[in-house]
Design a protein that fits this description.
heterodimer; A: about 190 residues; mainly alpha; 9 helices; B: about 120 residues; 4 helices; about 80% helix
């Protein structure tokens, strides 16, 4: 079902179309909410609020972008608004961002070795400490596999900024990991057996 | 010669893998059902409130118009009536609120909680 047919069906009050719309886009919204807000308890509530806004504003959708991009933009604005309400810092400092280490890997972890699973866990923990715009762009690009153009439409950032955040975010993530696990400079990561 | 296993290249590969991995947490299986139920209730509530506001507005507007006509065109009838209203304003206000509440219950509350769900129509 293409976007325009789906929207027409939803606006006509077809309950199946509503369900289809939610099922088709819930993962995008869920991933954005989880990565942008790092919420544990209320993440589903925020997702629900986002879909309420989608249903409410769907009649104003003009079809200038893909429906997924439009829903992504609503999710992005809602997450930013949620972070502002909670008083969390969302701006990315101009210039190089200095990694703020929220605790290095424990001595046990570094003394022995980190297998790939533990390393991935550590990477996910480190992603959660990146500035929100870096996290967002990285999530949309790698996890949702969206194009630069689509990320621009969702976040409202210029294309150059998207590319810059993506590179800086990746670089920062790497630097933070190397700070947390200094042994990575000279020890290969063992493959678990 | 065997290629050297560079730990930093390995790290890059691992980062790339981790970035493409879905989060461990997943949405609950009942998410869509719960969402649609809540959305329907919310939209229905808003729709009923809007209808109620319009109806009350029309009723009050009509009453106001009749009152104005009486004041300007039949002051001998409306004079004593307005005096009576001014004297018993508490009773009149209470009666008005009671009528409003009964109307609200009939038009919003009963319709909200007694009608079966009939799908979302934003």
């Amino acid at each position: 079902m293409d976007d325009s047919t789906l929207i027409a069906q939803v606006l006509a009050g077809n309950a199946h179309a509503h369900r289809y719309l939610v099922d088709r886009h819930k993962n995008l919204v869920w991933h954005m909410v989880l990565r942008m807000t790092n919420l544990q308890e209320d993440a589903e509530d925020l997702c629900q609020e986002i879909f309420f806004r989608v249903f409410r504003d769907l009649k104003n959708f003009r079809g200038e972008s893909k429906l997924s991009t439009w829903i992504g933009a609503i999710a992005y604005k809602s997450c930013i608004s949620h972070l502002r309400k909670k008083g969390k810092e969302i701006l990315v400092p101009v210039g190089d961002y200095t990694p703020v280490l929220r605790g290095k890997a424990s001595p046990e972890q570094t003394d022995q070795y980190l297998d790939r699973t533990s390393m991935k866990k550590l990477i996910h923990q480190t992603i959660a400490t990146l500035p929100v715009h870096y996290r967002t762009v990285i999530t949309l690009f790698y996890l949702e596999e969206l194009s630069y153009r689509e990320i621009e439409e969702i976040t409202g950032m210029p294309g150059g900024t998207v590319k810059s955040y993506l590179n800086r975010g990746r670089h920062l993530l790497r630097e933070m990991l190397l700070c947390r696990v200094p042994d990575l400079h000279h020890e290969p990561i063992p493959v678990e057996t | 010669m065997e290629p050297k296993n560079d730990p930093l290249d390995d790290l890059d590969r691992l980062i790339l893998e981790a970035l493409k991995e879905k989060p461990d947490r997943e949405l609950s299986l009942s998410f869509t059902d719960t969402l649609l139920l809540k959305a329907e209730r919310r939209l229905r509530w808003q729709e009923l409130l809007r209808e109620f506001t319009i109806k009350v507005g029309i009723a009050l507007g009509s009453l106001g118009l009749v009152a104005l006509l009486l004041v300007f065109m039949a002051s001998e009838v409306s004079g004593p009536f307005l005096s009576m209203v001014a004297v018993h304003w508490q009773l009149v206000t209470g009666f008005g609120l009671l009528v409003l509440f009964a109307f609200f219950s009939d038009q919003v509350l009963l319709r909200m909680f007694s009608c079966p769900p009939h799908g979302i129509n934003p």
